[in-house]
Design a protein that fits this description.
By secondary structure, the protein is mainly alpha-helical. It has helices at residues 42-57, 60-74, 88-113, 127-149, 174-180, 191-194; strands at 6-11, 20-25, 78-79, 82-83.
């Protein structure tokens, strides 16, 4: 990363973090001694690595734990004189994301089970599905957490009018997490560029995520090859 022509520019996230970067390669020359794999195969290797990265970005376990937390807090926090969890609209949104997450989990299991069907070193085209839907679910769950805590998401201002702080201790990281998770739809291949809605006419037609049913996604990818990913 210290080679001539490599420029790293930090991207400050909306929560103030700096863990995301842009990397520019301008006429970078790599010594033959540093060659990894075969010459002119770099993009093939990149696609393989990106496929694995996208599979990991799904983060099914993280979303499961966050949903458990949502239920726990929504049962305690009241709005309009009753727990948030008893609100019909909120329950519908929570149920919808749980269905989506179950579909994502089953798709991830299918990707793992089918690993040997696509040939050694070739990415599974469904890895894009995992990344896109996984990042959307992560963002949705942080939004639901924000909905649960409502005004308590506002940061504590010790110089406020009366010097009081009504926020509970457990609310401190919810807003920063919400803002930080806006990045997950960008890294690993942005959702806009990975989405079939933005691909060219030569790309095979495929259904999109409109139902969230567990058996709805995979048939939409029938006949795709690794090159389509």
């Amino acid at each position: 990363m210290k080679s001539k022509g490599i420029t790293v520019r930090p991207i400050q996230t909306i929560d103030g973090g700096r863990e995301v970067n842009e990397v520019f390669l301008d006429d970078v020359q790599v010594p033959v001694a540093n060659l990894v794999g075969e010459e002119n195969k770099g993009w093939d290797y990149a696609k393989f690595l990106l496929g694995n990265e996208r599979t990991g970005i799904a983060r099914v376990g993280v979303s499961k734990e966050r949903i458990r937390r949502i239920r726990e807090l929504a049962a305690k926090v009241e709005s309009g004189g009753k727990p948030v969890l008893e609100d019909q609209g909120f329950r519908e949104k929570l149920a919808a994301v749980e269905i989506e997450l179950k579909a994502l989990e089953l798709t991830q299991l299918r990707v793992v089970a089918d690993e040997n069907k696509h040939g050694k070193g070739k990415p599974n085209p469904a890895s894009s599905v995992l990344k896109i839907k996984g990042s959307e679910i992560q963002q949705t769950t942080t939004e639901l957490l924000m909905e649960v805590i409502g005004p308590f998401a506002a940061p504590f201002d010790e110089h406020g009018d009366d010097g009081s702080n009504e926020a509970m201790d457990w609310t401190a990281q919810i807003a920063p997490s919400y803002f930080n998770n806006r990045k997950v739809s960008i890294y690993g291949g942005s959702n806009d560029s990975s989405s079939p809605r933005t691909r060219g006419p030569s790309t095979p037609q495929r259904s999109w995520f409109t139902k969230g049913a567990c058996d709805y996604w995979i048939p939409a990818f029938a006949g795709m090859t690794a090159e389509d990913s």
